[in-house]
């Protein structure tokens, strides 16, 4: 029984835990909420890669988008023991270390294939039984009644046909091979006498070739010696001819090099003559005094004096002192006026507060005429204060201007006394002297450079004279060797001609010897090949006869196996059908909704399975029943098959069993699922409608 399932990054579920119990477990939610994913999680946990391959999917199809790894953890209760199956996986497949099966806390299998094998061994559930009997996917409830081969696939009876097909293919292959081996044996029996005749003919021809070879061996020895002597003389003649060509080329190159050396010597002598002339000119160059310093100093002085602004030349430093004195005088007067004005304002303020025509401070008489006089005086002082303020501002601006002009004046003070016109005339004189000095210095540098090359030129001159002497010596040696080579070539030419004539005579006999030797070698090779081929043919013939006998025995065995398989399949179907019918009646009677249905019986009619229901009026074929009654029969048959093959159905899962059914048929499916718990401990059903909620023991809403 399924207790709990935990999902991590499985399809639409990031992290979820679902608890299930005995009875009806109803998974309710809209389309796309992950109901089918929960069913598939059970299948993946139990069968891993087997399930993925059977459904034609990939591991990546079960992984939540964007996640690197996912996990399914299934808790089951089996025969009083707690079983936990864990599958951890990524896009490429399951993790070996993260996939395991434990029973009562002890790990009994690890890795994808071992865990799947342990599920089949420990729980007694294989992937085919699970797919056909325990997990009924959407729209597949009645498939067991509609497909003729469905029950045979569940019972594995189609394996008999597969084995018979394999045996038939093996029989045909053995038969074809027997025919090929028989034909090859006949061909080999014809081939052996032909090879023996060929061996005799080759042996006669080889004896004749060896006799001819023995007659030519003396001439072959003479040919070898003549060839050696001819090739040695010819090689010496060619070597001397090449040496003559080399010497002639060397003489030509030596003569060309001697001419080049002669030209180089003439060039160097001209260079030395130029050096001697440069020495004489260098001594006659005039000495010009040092005018450069005075020229640059006067040039800088004149450039600065010409930049003096006109206002600086007309500036008098006493103007700044006069402006400062006037500013101080104006500021002093402004302070006196401001002080007198503030005093009068205080008197007028006191007068406004006086009582009885007396000063409230000193008590002296304070007439109206005195007050008016003070007011007029205050008005005049205010105007004087404004005039003095404007004068102070103007003097401040004038002082700033004069201070800036004074700074510029002090900067150029030393240049104000310079006579610009006289300085320009003197600068022109100095520039002419300076240019003259530069020309003399450039000429002196050029002549000094020429004079400095004297030593190098004299060294090169000595070197070239030595190289010229060496070249003349080599030309003399080459001329001597060339004369000796030409004399030896004349002697060798007659010897080479005589050796070549002897070599040409013996070469014809040598070619005849080679043909005879080649023929003998080829005949020996063909004779060895023919003898080897004959031995191989005789060995292959013996092997073919032995193989033909074995294939004949194999054909007889294959015929016997096909005969036995033809008898076993009907017998196995009869035994399994009987066991299914015993379970079918018990399940059907618990799930039926009509008392008139007395029993259900699975029969084979014309090679097809037919479910018949017994009624008081007689048996009824399942194809004549209503859709709801067919659902009842299909469900009963699946439970019966599970009992017959597995010993019982530990759980059953239905994915949207009411999809595309009307209200009446949906109600009947609900009743079937409710009654199914009397024979199956745990039933899991999904739907996007709420029809199972009233019969559910556990409701999981997504």
TrEMBL record:
Keywords: ATP-binding, Coiled coil, Metal-binding, Nucleotide-binding, Zinc
GO molecular function, one term: ATP binding
Residues the record lists as binding Zn(2+): 359, 362
Pfam families linked: SMC_N
RNA-binding keyword on record: no
Keyword Ion transport (UniProt): no
SUPFAM superfamilies registered for this protein in UniProt: P-loop containing nucleoside triphosphate hydrolases (SSF52540), Rad50 coiled-coil Zn hook (SSF75712)
Every Zinc-hook domain range: 313-407
Coiled-coil portions: 171-288, 320-347, 371-561
PANTHER family: ABC TRANSPORTER ABCH.3 (PTHR32114)
Protein name stated in the entry: SMC domain protein
Gene source species: Pyrobaculum neutrophilum (strain DSM 2338 / JCM 9278 / NBRC 100436 / V24Sta) (Thermoproteus neutrophilus)
């Amino acid at each position: 029984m399924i207790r709990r399932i935990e999902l991590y990054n499985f399809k639409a579920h990031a992290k979820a835990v679902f608890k299930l119990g005995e009875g009806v477990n109803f998974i309710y939610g809209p389309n796309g909420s992950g109901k089918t994913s929960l069913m598939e999680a059970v299948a993946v946990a139990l069968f891993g890669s087997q399930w993925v391959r059977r459904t034609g999917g990939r591991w990546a199809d079960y992984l939540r988008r964007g996640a690197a790894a996912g996990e399914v953890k299934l808790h089951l209760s089996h025969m009083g023991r707690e079983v936990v199956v864990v599958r951890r996986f990524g896009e490429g497949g399951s993790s070996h270390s993260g996939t395991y099966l434990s029973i009562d806390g002890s790990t009994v299998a690890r890795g994808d294939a071992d865990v799947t094998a342990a599920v089949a061994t420990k729980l007694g559930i294989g992937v085919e039984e699970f797919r056909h009997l325990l997990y009924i996917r959407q729209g597949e409830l009645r498939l067991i009644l509609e497909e003729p081969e469905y029950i045979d696939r569940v019972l594995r009876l189609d394996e008999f046909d597969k084995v018979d097909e394999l045996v038939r293919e093996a029989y045909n292959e053995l038969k074809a091979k027997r025919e090929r081996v028989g034909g090859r044996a006949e061909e080999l029996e014809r081939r052996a006498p032909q090879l023996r005749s060929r061996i005799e003919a080759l042996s006669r021809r080889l004896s004749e070739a060896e006799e001819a070879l023995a007659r030519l061996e003396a001439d072959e020895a003479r040919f070898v010696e003549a060839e050696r002597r001819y090739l040695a003389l010819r090689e010496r003649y060619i070597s001397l001819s090449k040496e003559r060509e080399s010497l002639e080329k060397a003489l030509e190159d030596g003569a060309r090099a001697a001419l080049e050396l002669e030209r180089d010597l003439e060039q160097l002598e001209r260079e030395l003559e130029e050096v001697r002339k440069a020495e004489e000119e260098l001594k006659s160059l005039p000495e010009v005094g040092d005018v450069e310093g005075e020229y640059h100093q006067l040039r800088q002085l004149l450039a600065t004096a010409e930049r003096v602004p006109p206002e600086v030349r007309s500036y008098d430093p006493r103007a700044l002192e006069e402006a400062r004195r006037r500013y101080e005088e104006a500021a002093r007067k402004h302070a006196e006026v401001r002080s007198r004005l503030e005093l009068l304002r205080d008197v007028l303020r006191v007068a406004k507060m006086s009582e009885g025509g007396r000063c409230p401070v000193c008590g002296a008489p304070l007439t109206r005429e005195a007050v008016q006089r003070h007011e007029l005086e205050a008005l005049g002082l205010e105007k004087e204060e404004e005039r003095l303020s404007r004068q102070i501002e103007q003097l401040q601006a004038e002082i700033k201007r004069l201070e800036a002009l004074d700074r510029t004046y002090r900067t150029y003070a030393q240049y104000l006394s310079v006579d610009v016109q006289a300085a320009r005339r003197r600068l022109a004189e100095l520039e002419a002297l300076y240019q003259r000095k530069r020309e003399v210095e450039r000429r002196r540098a050029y002549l000094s450079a020429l004079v400095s090359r004297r030593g190098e030129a004299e060294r090169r001159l000595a070197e070239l004279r030595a190289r010229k002497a060496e070249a003349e010596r080599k030309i003399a040696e080459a001329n001597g060797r060339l004369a000796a080579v030409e004399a030896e070539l004349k002697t060798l030419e007659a010897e080479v001609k005589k050796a070549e004539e002897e070599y040409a005579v013996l070469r014809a006999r040598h070619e005849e010897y080679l043909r005879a030797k080649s023929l003998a070698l080829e005949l020996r090779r063909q004779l060895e090949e023919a003898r080897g081929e004959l031995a191989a043919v005789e060995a292959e013939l013996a092997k073919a006869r032995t193989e033909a006998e074995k294939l004949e025995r194999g054909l007889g065995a294959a015929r016997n196996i096909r005969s036995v398989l033809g008898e076993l399949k009907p017998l196995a179907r009869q035994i399994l059908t009987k066991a299914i019918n015993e379970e079918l009646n018990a399940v059907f009677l618990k799930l039926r909704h009509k008392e008139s249905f007395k029993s259900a019986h699975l029969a084979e009619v014309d090679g097809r399975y037919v479910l018949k229901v017994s009624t008081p009026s007689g048996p009824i074929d399942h194809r004549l029943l209503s859709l709801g009654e067919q659902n009842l029969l299909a469900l009963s048959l699946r439970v019966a098959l599970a009992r017959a093959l597995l010993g019982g159905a530990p759980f059953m899962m239905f994915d949207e069993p009411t999809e595309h059914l009307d209200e009446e048929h949906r109600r009947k499916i609900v009743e079937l699922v409710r009654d199914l718990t009397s024979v199956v401990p745990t039933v899991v059903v999904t739907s996007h409608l709420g029809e199972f909620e009233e019969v559910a023991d556990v409701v999981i809403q997504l």
